[in-house]
Amino acid sequence: MAEESDKSEKSGGGEEPAKKKLPLVPIIVVAAMLIGEAAVVAGMFMFLGGPAEVQADPAVTDELAEGARPLTLPVLATKFQNKKSGESFLYDVEIFATTQKKHEEDATRLLEEKKAAIQFEVMVIFRKAEPAFLREASLQTLTRQIRSVVQEAVGNVPGTDEPYFDDVILGKCTEFAEF
User: Fold this and answer.
1) For a Cys staple, 147 with which of 34, 115, 168, 176, CB 3.0–4.6 Å?
2) Which parts pass through the membrane (predicted)?
3) Quick one: pLDDT at residue 52?
4) 3 or 49: whose pLDDT is higher?
5) Is the pTM of this model over 0.85?
6) Number of folded domains in the chain?
7) Domain annotation covers residue 5
8) Helix 140-154 and helix 115-128, axial crossing angle in degrees, nearest 10
9) How far apart are CA 12 and CA 2, in angstroms?
10) Are 146 and 69 contacting, i.e. CB atoms less than 8 angstroms apart?
11) Domain that holds residue 90
12) CA distance 112 to 104
């Protein structure tokens, strides 16, 4: 029996423990501080007024953004022959290269200087091309090879590893059967 009375004393002896009440005073103090801060911030905005009016000057241009604007330059517009399939086909081709506006002058000059070398290398690509490459929907194999030729011929922007041309586009690649 003594053991039972010890256990009942440890477990609370039948009385329920008192429930803890929420500490109302700290909650009220924190809420009052938050409301006071909000009132001070709102009052400062009302007292100081809204943001100043901003007027855009249409005559000002962002030269950095203008220099990074993409630009498309013509590279070649000619015809190339391919006899790999056993028949002779003629391909009417237009090739363009994309660069940034800031490189326009140098890129145009370099394309003119290297035009013969680029045309020769592209002619070799077309003569060696498998008929399947010439009939691809997106002409991705030819585009990749021509991009490599153009970037190798023109090189990079001086002082950087950045190529002059970002991409090469085959604007036209029309096949004609030669008779």
Assistant:
1) 168
2) 24-48
3) 78
4) 49
5) no
6) 1
7) no
8) 150
9) 16
10) no
11) 69-177
12) 12
Instruction: Kindly write down the DSSP assignment for every residue of 24-38, as one continuous string.
Output: HHHHHHHHHHHHHHH
Question: Is it the case that residue 46 has pLDDT exceeding 90?
Answer: no
Query: For residues 75 and 95, is the Cβ–Cβ distance under 8 A?
Result: yes
- Token pair 């585009």 is found at 143
Residue 96 DSSP SS3: strand
Q: Which two tokens stand for residue 43?
A: 């009052």
- The alpha carbon of 120 is separated from its chain's Cα centroid by a whole number of angstroms, namely 34
Q: What is the CATH number of the domain that holds 170?
A: 3.30.479.30
**Cα dihedral across residues 156, 161, 163, 164: positive or negative:** negative
- The DSSP output letter for 18 is P
> Rounded mean pLDDT of 4-25?
65
Residue 20 falls inside a structural domain: no
- Assess contact for 136 and 160: CB atoms under 8 A: no
Is residue 22 included in any domain, yes or no?
A: no
Query: Which residues, including other chains, have CB under 8 Å from residue 177's CB and lie 6 or more apart?
Result: 87, 88, 89, 90
Question: Does 141 reside within a domain?
Answer: yes
Q: For residue 161, what pLDDT is reported?
A: 86
Q: Is the pLDDT of residue 92 over 60?
A: yes
